[in-house]
Automatic annotation (TrEMBL):
InterPro entries: C-type_lectin-like, C-type_lectin-like/link_sf, CTDL_fold. The lineage of its organism: Eukaryota, Metazoa, Spiralia, Lophotrochozoa, Mollusca. Residues 1-70 form the C-type lectin domain. This is C-type lectin domain-containing protein. It comes from the Eukaryota.
Length: 72
């Protein structure tokens, strides 16, 4: 799993889920997610899973993840 720079601000209401990239832009919730994802309401970071076909997953932020950076 790799953290790809997106996270969600925890809210009291579980739906709808909104994730933002580190630059503040919203994550497209209609593209790239693994079936059934995002599914964990205590999982507020977005990771990519190479074993799952490079699909997006919500994950626990305090887990230690490798990460990907983009040079701007």
């Amino acid at each position: 799993m790799l953290w790809i720079g997106a996270h969600e601000m925890p809210t009291l209401l579980p739906l709808p889920r909104h994730f933002n990239w580190a630059n503040g832009q919203p994550v497209d919730m209609s593209y790239g997610w693994a079936p059934g994802e995002p599914e964990g309401y205590n999982q507020h970071c977005v990771t990519i899973n190479h074993a799952g076909g490079y699909t997006l997953h919500d994950n626990i932020c305090w887990f230690i993840h490798k990460f990907i950076c983009q040079r701007l």
